[in-house]
């Protein structure tokens, strides 16, 4: 993996408002989750871009461990999810070989990541619907405190498969619809940057449709997240993705409606 050099400096946490309800945020905002293998490159690039646009957003990885390139292909740097901060990874690699890890972009990537949130999290360990009050310093956290999102965007097919399989195994205890969309992005810094822009464009398109349908059914009913109140929006999503795909033909997309 060639890590991303990021999309720019992270915004201050105070710029995001509760569920995006502010003048700067432009009103109602869907809640997003971005997912890649190690919660390092592609998902974090998208996380940053969405948070900069005032979308509530969280991010995860689906791998068994966090893996970063090492001095050779057989010597990766391996870390545990949920237990190792981006800052500690940065300091460890800087101490090991600052020239190597600056040249391959790892230090720049980890520097960006530690400005977004504390450390990589694993999707399979996420307790959907459980409060995330300890993540108040994460960019994009305001609006996701309840542990729910409306859209999950993965960055490669195996991650999409892992998310969909995991949701099926959970048995839909909340009976709440969630759109799971895969945007296939090669795992290098240039493609992650392009993919982040594409995901942000898709988020704006989805959000515009959600705002329209929310006004029709009423804010309380739509925000409750039930299948009936969201059905008109859910039915529009495939067409929205198809239109988006015409604008981003080099980012193949796959979609399904799943359930929390």
Automatic annotation (TrEMBL):
EC top class, as a word: hydrolase
| Ranges of biased composition (kind: Low complexity) | 1-20
> Residue ranges of region Disordered?
1-23
Q: What is this protein called?
A: RNA polymerase II subunit A C-terminal domain phosphatase SSU72
- Similarity comment: family membership: Belongs to the SSU72 phosphatase family.
Its GO CC terms are: mRNA cleavage and polyadenylation specificity factor complex
Any idea what job this protein has?
Component of the cleavage and polyadenylation factor (CPF) complex, which plays a key role in polyadenylation-dependent pre-mRNA 3'-end formation and cooperates with cleavage factors including the CFIA complex and NAB4/CFIB. SSU72 is required for 3'-end formation of snoRNAs.
Q: Name one GO biological process term.
A: mRNA 3'-end processing
Q: Which InterPro entries match?
A: RNA_pol_II_suA (IPR006811)
Which EC numbers characterise this protein's activity in its record? Answer: 3.1.3.16
Q: Which organism is it from?
A: Phialemonium atrogriseum
Q: Which Gene3D superfamilies match?
A: 3.40.50.2300
**GO molecular function of the protein, one example?**
RNA polymerase II CTD heptapeptide repeat phosphatase activity
State the reactions this protein catalyses. Answer: O-phospho-L-threonyl-[protein] + H2O = L-threonyl-[protein] + phosphate; O-phospho-L-seryl-[protein] + H2O = L-seryl-[protein] + phosphate
Concerning Pfam families, the annotation shows: Ssu72 (PF04722)
Just give the chief location class: nucleus
Keywords, A to Z, come to:
Hydrolase, mRNA processing, Nucleus, Protein phosphatase
Quaternary structure, per UniProt, is: Component of the cleavage and polyadenylation factor (CPF) complex.
Q: Where in the cell is it found?
A: Nucleus
